[in-house]
């Protein structure tokens, strides 16, 4: 059975690129373009892993992360921050709010796949 990954990011080109890469590696990918849509999809689709961008409209990743970690249906899903924010403050805040890991854009596709394997083998 394919592992299901929810990608929450507001950059359509990035989402398309990551989706193609993950589907080529036998993952099922769902996408959301903002935090509110991402939360709704996390509840309805029950993914095995969530990739979450920080900088998004309507609800950014640091606003969404505590919601995901506090909700009974989503709190055990690993959440990997997938962002261009490479500053220590964002990394520490993400960790404090419950992020499982932190991956900085741009990244190598092998690095992306290794992170997935670490949390949903």
Can you characterise this structure?
- The protein is of the alpha/beta class.
- It has one domain (4-89, 98-119): Response regulator (Rossmann fold), CATH 3.40.50.2300.
- The chain has 5 helices and 5 strands; from the N terminus they run E-H-E-H-E-H-E-H-E-H.
- The chain has helices at residues 12-24, 35-45, 61-70, 88-97, 109-119, and strands spanning 4-8, 28-32, 49-52, 79-83, 101-104.
- It has a 5-stranded parallel beta sheet with strand order 2-1-3-4-5, with helices on both faces.
- Helix 4 links the parallel strand 4 (79-83) and strand 5.
- The longest helix is centred in the N-terminal third of the chain and has 13 residues, at 12-24.
Q: What level of helicity do the residues show?
A: 40-55%
CATH level-four homologous superfamily name: Response regulator
Mean pLDDT: 96
Number of strands: 5
């Amino acid at each position: 059975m394919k592992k299901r990954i929810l990608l929450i990011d507001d950059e359509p080109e990035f989402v398309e690129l990551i989706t193609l890469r993950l589907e080529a590696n036998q993952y099922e990918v769902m996408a959301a373009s903002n935090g509110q849509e991402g939360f709704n999809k996390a509840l309805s689709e029950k993914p095995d892993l969530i990739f979450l961008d920080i900088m998004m409209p309507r609800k950014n990743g640091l606003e969404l992360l505590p919601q995901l970690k506090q909700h009974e249906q989503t709190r055990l899903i690993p959440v990997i921050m997938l962002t261009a924010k490479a500053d220590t403050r964002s990394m520490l805040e993400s960790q404090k709010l419950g992020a499982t890991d932190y991956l900085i854009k741009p990244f190598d596709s092998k690095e992306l796949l290794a992170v997935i394997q670490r949390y949903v083998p």
